[in-house]
Amino acid sequence: MDIQRIGIVGCGLMGAGIAQVSAEAGYAVVSKEVDEAFLAKGLARITAQWDKAMAKGKRSAEEVAAFRARLQGSTSWSDLASCDLIIEAVPERLELKLATFAELEKVARPGALLCSNTSSLPITQLGAVLSPGRHAGLAGLHFFNPVPAMPLVEIIRTLATSPTTVQHLRDFIAKVNKTPVLAPDAPGFIVNRLLVPYLLDAARCAEQRLASTEDLDHGMKLGCGHPMGPLHLCDFIGLDTMANVADVMFAAYGEPRFSCPSLVRQMVAAGRLGRKSGMGFYRWEGEQRLEAMPL
Ligand SMILES: NC(=O)c1ccc[n+]([C@@H]2O[C@H](COP(=O)([O-])OP(=O)(O)OC[C@H]3O[C@@H](n4cnc5c(N)ncnc54)[C@H](O)[C@@H]3O)[C@@H](O)[C@H]2O)c1
Fold first, then answer.
1. Closest residue (by CA) to atom 3 of ligand 1?
2. What local confidence, expressed as pLDDT, does residue 239 receive?
3. Were both Cys, which of 25, 53, 109, 279 would link to 59 (CB 3.0–4.6 Å)?
């Protein structure tokens, strides 16, 4: 099978990034959202990136016109029927993911590859709503945030994922100019299994007033050579996503290091979701990080 048409369910932080890099790599892309308002917001996120690249002289007007022409927005499941590879990037909640795969079961063409960008949910569990014939084409395809900048994609293989599927995904990842690693189908895969406890610990340190938000971030950035501090990274990922991922991993492993600190839950309840809501550990104006917010 030659992958030509990619369907992406969800045009939020991750879905928009995956749609962007896929269209840039030459694929025809269908980006599916819940309604016109979310779709417009998601597509605007992508076109803003292309406008910025054009303004900086990194992309020509012709290139950007070709990218736009390859990107189709939709609010209808049936528009995914002709896709060769469908990647879901809906919020990290099991019931939403299962409902998504149940819809894909109905509309995806036979033999289409079905992937999840989940950060923590077992792919095998997501496949429970698929018919047996679809399991060979089911895998995890875990991109990192921000998708256009981050070079890694984890491929998560279940016991049923076929070697041909893995090879097709390797080819796709190479075409979007990224590097794959093969990860186990266990919550958190490789990277989040190690990263999430570190980020949750940083939030616990902030909760216990170990140091100021800025000093915690500066400490890890300058002391360990990380590109950004852990609380800054939590804002970047989204506190709601962090809480959902922590809950899945805590349920799976039962270890306190995966438990979600109450500070994170309070922030989510208060709408402090990080960069995407303009408030988290820091105040944000679009992509610009402003001062730390009181805790
Ligand atoms: N945020 C990160 O740093 C990050 C990194 C890697 C993986 N992930 C994973 O990627 C997935 C998406 O996360 P995100 O940060 O992009 O979330 P997000 O909240 O920014 O975007 C999710 C989008 O999905 C849409 N959606 C919900 N139900 C839908 C449906 N039925 N059909 C179409 N669209 C639907 C929502 O409207 C929303 O725009 C999650 O599984 C998350 O764990 C996130």
1. 237
2. 98
3. 53
